[in-house]
Design a protein that fits this description.
An 8-stranded mixed beta sheet has the order 3-2-1-4-5-6-7-11, with helices on one face. A 3-stranded antiparallel beta sheet has the order 8-9-10. Helix content is 31%, strand content 25%. It has a single domain, classed as Formyl transferase, N-terminal domain (Rossmann fold, 3-Layer(aba) Sandwich), CATH 3.40.50. The protein contains 6 helices and 11 strands. The structure holds 5-O-phosphono-beta-D-ribofuranosylamine. The site of 5-O-phosphono-beta-D-ribofuranosylamine (GRF) has 16 residues, from helix 1, strand 5 and helix 6. The site of 5-O-phosphono-beta-D-ribofuranosylamine has 16 residues, from helix 1, strand 5 and helix 6.
């Protein structure tokens, strides 16, 4: 937390286990991150992350995509839910839905996502197995701003991990997640302190446009 930090009202969107959500809960509780998690929203009622939120005393909402006829109707319901909490920042933490342009524009430059790959390599799903199949030596995860194009918004922070010869997708996933739990709260800390901005479709750190993501380093 820096001197310029202020509590930024934040909604965290999840679909599953919520280990990244837990990293935000822990970093906030430990005073490392100056955000106020005003709501956790899941698109699945059985997401374990909802329990993590409840345990931490955070309000939860469930907006299930299966209850809506199409993506536009679902996103409209999502916006209606989010607006009740007036978030200044949306953090997608394993939220497995593609957002419509309407929602992305509504929160333009205020949505963060983490993608389990060294973007721009390996956008999309099943990244760990694809990385193993391709014989890559390095893998990792990238925090980026969300734009209308999937996994293509300007990147911010990237954490790398080695790929070992006998890795399974599960082993690699665990290694990637461990680094995610460090870099994602750190990227949010850069945002809450005002050091990180989204301008003209690019990420800016300390007033300088980022041409590539900052490699993982301890910024706390
Ligand atoms: C993370 O690995 C993240 O990169 C991807 O979804 C996963 C979510 O895991 N977008 P968790 O729910 O935070 O444990």
């Amino acid at each position: 937390m820096t001197q310029n930090s202020r509590q930024v009202s934040t909604a965290i969107l999840i679909s599953g286990s919520g280990t990244n959500l837990q990293a935000f809960i822990d970093a906030t509780r430990d005073g490392l991150l100056d955000l106020s998690i005003v709501v956790v929203v899941s698109n699945r009622a059985d997401a374990y992350g909802l329990m993590r939120a409840v345990d931490a005393g955070i309000t939860t909402e469930c907006v299930q995509n299966k209850d809506y006829p199409n993506r536009a109707a679902f996103d409209e319901a999502l916006v209606d839910t989010l607006e009740k909490y007036e978030p200044e920042l949306l953090i997608l933490a394993g939220f497995m839905r593609i957002l419509t342009a309407t929602l992305v524009q509504r929160y333009d430059g205020k949505i963060l996502n983490i993608h389990p790959a060294l973007l721009p390599n390996y956008p999309g799903l099943n990244t760990h197995q694809r990385v193993i199949d391709a014989g890559e030596k390095w893998h990792g995860s990238t925090v980026h701003f969300v734009t209308e194009e999937l996994d293509a918004g300007p990147s911010i922070l990237q954490g790398r991990v080695p790929v070992f010869a006998n890795d399974t997708a599960d082993m690699l996933s665990a290694r990637v997640q461990a680094i995610e739990h460090k870099i994602y709260p750190q990227a949010a800390a850069l945002f809450t302190s005002g050091r990180l901005e989204y301008k003209n479709g690019k990420s800016w750190l300390d007033g300088v446009q980022l041409d590539k993501p900052v490699q993982y380093d301890d910024v706390f």
